[in-house]
Amino acid sequence: MAGVGIAVGLFVLLALAAPLAVSLLVREERERDAATVADRETAERATRRDTRER
Q1: Buried b (16+ CB within 10 A) or exposed e, 7-24
Q2: In Å, what is the CA distance from 28 to each residue of 16, 21, 25, 35?
Q3: 16 with 8: CB under 8 angstroms?
Q4: What's the rounded mean pLDDT across residues 38-48?
Q5: Distance (Å, rounded) from C-alpha 11 to C-alpha 26?
Q6: C-alpha to C-alpha distance for 14 and 20, rounded to whole angstroms
């Protein structure tokens, strides 16, 4: 019976820790990529340069 309690406790701990870990990773990625964020006009120009029209 103690094994079931430990398993449930680990599951609850993981269920609480996973969203926090994802949140921290997303925040870190956003800070890392902040310099490369472009406005809409710049992004459209870059997209047009990347495509080849026939």
Answers
A1: eeeeeeeeeeeeeeeeee
A2: 19, 11, 5, 13
A3: no
A4: 85
A5: 23
A6: 10
- CA 20 vs CA 6, 12, 24, 25, 33: distances in Å: 21, 13, 6, 9, 20
Torsion of the alpha carbons at 14, 15, 21 and 22, rounded to the nearest 10: 140
CA separation, residue 32 to residues 8, 10, 52 (Å) = 36, 32, 30
| Percent of the chain with pLDDT strictly greater than 90 | 48
